[in-house]
Amino acid sequence: MINKILFTLFLLLLPTQLGKHFFFDFSHLSGVRVDYLAPAIYLTDIIIFLMTIVNHKLIFKFFSNKKILLGLAFLLINILVSKLPIISAYWFIKIIELLIIFSLAKKIMVTLKEKNILSILLVSGLFELFLSLIQLIIKHSIQGVFYYFGERLLSLSTPGVAKASISGVEFLRPYGTFSHPNSLGGFFLLLYFFVLTYKKFNRYLFLKSIFLFISSILVFISFSKITIISFLILNTYYLLLNTKLNCRLCKISRVLVTFIVSLIFLTATTDPLTINKRVELMKNAMSIIYKNPIFGVGLGNYLVEQVNYSSKYYLFFNQPVHNIFLLFIAETGLVVGGLIMYQLINRLIQARLKKEQWILIFVVIFTGFFDHYWLTLQQNFLLVGLVMGASLFRE
């Protein structure tokens, strides 16, 4: 009963980011306060802590794996050589938290049952859709009670805010309770394909269809081009892969509708300098890796090093490189990071995954090539552990 309550709360609150940040002197870069350098405790962290206590035997068994212990040992060395050990220690704890969710994912699926999981996801999805649509319409955040769910204070005049325009009409790209619309889009993109490919959800087709529809809208109104392109490619692939739909005309029409809707949102004008900014960040990352090839700069320390590089763009020094692979190698080094990535790739190859499972991995890899939220933002970070754990442990 306790597990069921904790698992329900975790799934329900996963898209939110209610928490307390602790800002220190090192949390400021060039006089600007940076969230990425501020340790934080979120409500979801507290729930995970309670889940760990209740399920300590299962988690202890998971962490007794020699390869996992070896990887964590390498990361402990990384803490000792990092520029800010306190930040590295914080992210070391976050990685342990990610592994805890990964280890509990199958038990969460079994304990809550498919119908309850879909219902919980549907409630959280409806909440995010309501909040996002209101932000889109009124062009600013609502605040009030929504502040406690993680909604930021935003408007079109906020410096660096994400905007989009169609036919000359400018509006705020909705954030929901996320730190950025790209994070919102990526979160529901991964959930969309998790629900789409998890066959046991097919027993509750109505709930599944409603959630997929809600997730699709959130992906589109995020106006994240990479997310929408991923949505279009993978939906087309999955539809062609699905042999249950024998009607060729039906397949073509579905692909065509998805393409047309995607094209409408892809033609919206967002940040015209986004490619130039990402290229600049990638050059910085390559330079940081070159200067710190062995052990990297330390977990969570990327921005501490990047502040030494000049930028053409206002306040862009406080943005991590928009590539999870470069970010991970820059922070952990070619030795530690390379070994961990090698073990992950080797494990995936040996697992002989099904095509549906590779779709989920592709979502993270493809979007991760163009953004950093899978490694840096609470909701996306924990979702990866949950979805990958549940997917890799499928029956």
Query: Which structural class do the helices and strands define?
Result: mainly alpha
Helix content: 55-70%
Strand content: under 5%
Structure summary, number of beta strands = 6
Radius of gyration: 21 Å
Main sheet characteristics: 2 strands, antiparallel
Shape summary: globular
Q: What is the end-to-end distance? A: 24 Å
Q: Note the total helix count.
A: 15
Tally the structural domains: 1
Topology:
Elements: H1 2-13, E1 19-21, E2 28-29, E3 32-33, E4 40-42, H2 43-54, H3 56-63, H4 66-81, H5 85-138, E5 163-166, E6 169-172, H6 181-197, H7 205-221, H8 225-241, H9 248-266, H10 274-291, H11 302-306, H12 324-350, H13 355-368, H14 373-376, H15 378-392
Antiparallel strand pairs: 1-4, 2-3, 5-6
Describe this structure in words.
- This protein is mainly alpha-helical.
- It has one domain.
- It is built from 15 helices and six strands.
- The chain has a two-stranded antiparallel sheet with strand order 1-4. The protein has a two-stranded antiparallel ribbon with strand order 2-3. A two-stranded antiparallel ribbon has the order 5-6.
- A hairpin with a 2-residue loop joins β5 and β6.
- The protein is globular.
Please supply descriptive tags for the structure shown above.
mainly alpha, two-stranded antiparallel ribbon, 65% helix
Quick take:
This protein has 395 residues and is mostly helical.
